[in-house]
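Lecture notes, part 5. Sequence design as translation. It can be helpful to think of inverse folding as translation between two languages: the language of shapes and the language of residues. The source text, in structure tokens, appears below.
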């Protein structure tokens, strides 16, 4: 049988099973994965389906019934072999050659309506050769948290994976960081790719330059097509360098998106860094309540390696480690000089995004306003998310004429200075620009933010009375 035949489900009446799955990664051969089966679960209750993504896959949500989701993503036995991907990674700075998909696998790859290839990847679907002593499961709370993170980040304009479905699977799990026993789930993630920095690091570890080159070609073909003006055929060396440069730019832009969103990923190990520069894998993440560079999200991040303010330097370090894996194929010195521009790429993306959250465009007094905004948010500890929410909700064109109309976020002296400067910037724009300021504020500042107490409160209602309404409401609110 050809890979296409094995991977394409026969003409199933289930639209999710009859999607045109493409065995893109599978066709590279089994050096990159192990074939695995999904676990059998005592129960399958659909708790979340993402209809926005169905449309992206060209499916009409009305034609896809809940039972279809359960059949496709809750009953994983016997559908077809799935691929547990092999990878290593630097975890908290230490190389770990004992990683790999331990509780998930590549379910399938499929084209979106935009013509791009997407991965459907599971989390919590059972044990694999990489589970070590762990159970291969995902807690229901972990599933709920990942659905919420992805939707909130998507609303904030972050380039992120999202969750297509979450099925509660009826097992009791034991976890040190949740009151146990706790409920179980299988989540299906929709992302650009599950190829990680760590996928390449593993190939270097085994000194398989041939496999690095093959995978790199695959990644470039699918995820790094040349930009349209590039008409001349690139040499292989140029292609590889352009790839690394674009990856560095994408990662710098991603960190800027997290920072502007006030998001702390929590575990930026190299196995959690996608080779496409997309954000994914939301474990102990948190949105910062107040501006604090030292804020950490993971309780086990004792030294603040992955603190909010450290994210750009850590991602830069991860890109540097990736150079080691790529250096047999791409000249190290050239990668180094590309990486040297990381901070510059990051700063300019960050500045642009923060100005948008302030309703403005870069230029003029932007630099000064951004600096002062961060300074007062840090000094007065006004809520980071609430500040942008209030700015967007209360904005009036009259602020341009009278600073007294600008809300006093805290009756502290620094805010007086901030109000005057913000008014000054508004005055430097034509009056007709105020409508654009208002629409930018609305676009870049969601009306609901995903702080931890909001997640906990949703979870408590699920635990106390199996009431899922607050969860659905929160997902809805996040999109506003
Ligand atoms: P994460 O912290 O979720 O990024 O996972 C790090 C590594 O541990 C990955 O290789 C996971 O597949 C593995 N892992 C995490 N939790 C489990 C689990 N409950 N069972 C098996 N493997 C796991
Ligand atoms: Mg991970």
């Amino acid at each position: 049988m050809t890979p296409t035949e094995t991977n394409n489900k026969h003409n199933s009446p289930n639209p999710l099973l009859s999607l045109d799955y493409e065995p893109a990664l599978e066709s590279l051969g089994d050096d990159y994965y192990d074939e695995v089966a999904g676990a059998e679960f005592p129960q399958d209750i659909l708790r979340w389906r993402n209809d926005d993504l169905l449309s992206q896959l060209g499916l009409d949500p009305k034609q896809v019934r809940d039972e279809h989701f359960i059949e496709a993503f809750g009953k994983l036995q016997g559908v077809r072999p799935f691929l547990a991907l092999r990878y290593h990674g630097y975890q908290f700075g230490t190389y770990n050659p004992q990683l790999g998909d331990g509780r998930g696998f590549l379910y399938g790859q499929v084209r979106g309506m935009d013509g791009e290839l997407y991965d459907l990847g599971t989390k919590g679907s059972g044990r694999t050769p990489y589970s070590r002593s762990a159970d291969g499961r995902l807690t229901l709370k972990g599933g709920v948290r990942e659905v919420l993170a992805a939707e909130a980040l998507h609303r904030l304009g972050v380039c992120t994976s999202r969750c297509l479905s979450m099925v509660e699977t009826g097992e009791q799990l034991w976890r040190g960081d949740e009151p146990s026993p706790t409920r179980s789930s299988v989540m299906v993630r929709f992302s650009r790719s599950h190829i990680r920095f760590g996928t390449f690091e593993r190939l270097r570890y085994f000194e398989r330059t041939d496999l690095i080159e093959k995978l790199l070609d695959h990644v470039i073909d699918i995820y790094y097509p040349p930009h349209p003006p590039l008409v001349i055929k690139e040499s292989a060396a140029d292609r590889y360098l352009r790839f690394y440069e674009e990856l560095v730019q994408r990662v710098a832009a991603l960190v800027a998106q997290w920072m502007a969103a006030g998001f702390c990923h929590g575990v930026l190990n190299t196995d959690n860094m996608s080779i496409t520069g997309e954000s994914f894998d939301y474990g102990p993440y948190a949105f910062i309540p107040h501006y604090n560079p030292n804020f950490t999200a993971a309780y086990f991040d004792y030294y603040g390696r992955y603190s909010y303010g450290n994210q750009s330097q850590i991602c830069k370090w991860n890109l540097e480690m990736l150079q080691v894996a790529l250096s047999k194929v791409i000249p190290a010195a050239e990668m180094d000089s590309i990486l040297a521009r990381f901070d510059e790429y990051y700063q300019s993306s960050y500045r642009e995004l923060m100005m948008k959250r302030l309703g403005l465009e870069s230029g003029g007094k932007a630099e000064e306003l951004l600096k002062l905004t961060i300074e007062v948010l840090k000094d007065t500890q006004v809520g980071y998310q609430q500040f942008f929410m209030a700015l967007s909700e209360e904005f009036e064109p009259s602020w341009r004429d009278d600073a007294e109309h600008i809300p006093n976020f805290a009756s502290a002296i620094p805010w007086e200075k901030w109000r005057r400067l913000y008014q000054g910037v508004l005055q430097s724009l034509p009056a007709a620009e105020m409508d654009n300021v208002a629409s930018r504020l609305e676009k870049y500042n969601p009306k609901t933010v995903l702080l931890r107490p909001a997640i906990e409160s949703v979870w408590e209602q699920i635990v106390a009375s199996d009431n899922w309404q607050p969860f659905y409401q929160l997902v809805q609110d996040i999109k506003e």
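The translated text above is only one of many valid answers, since several sequences can fold into similar shapes. The radius of gyration is 23 Å.
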